[in-house]
Hints:
Blueprint: E1 2-6, E2 9-16, E3 25-30, E4 34-36, H1 41-49, H2 73-80, H3 93-103, H4 108-122
Antiparallel strand pairs: 1-2, 2-3, 3-4
Amino acid sequence: MVYRNLAGDYGTDYLLTGPDGSGTRRIARWDADFTGAGLTWRELTGIADGHLSTTEPTEEAESPEPAEGVRDTASRLLLLLPLLTDPDVPEEASARVATALTEVGAPAYTASATADHLLAHLERRSRHDPAWASPLSGGRE
């Protein structure tokens, strides 16, 4: 991730490079809007786990540990999560995100609900929690 904060040039670039720093490819860019193809759940977890090459985004290949950058799988998964554009994530996605959240220090009692919220938001769908008593829904006065 490259954060740009120069006058007139601000945003975030998501770049994927080979373990030796070669083969840089832009995955996405956030300026005022999102630009790029985004990632499927399979691609996202493949990159987080270190199993996708930089030349073929859908080809699985074991790659050595990167020389620099974020090495922790949970941290990489959470950093890549905003790039998820897959409308059909598998059922285990929520548990994987919740585990990653607790591994980076989130309280265990909030991780599951937070993971559900993040995935619902990133999938561009609303999440309804029937236990939440909102004053807007008439749940409380």
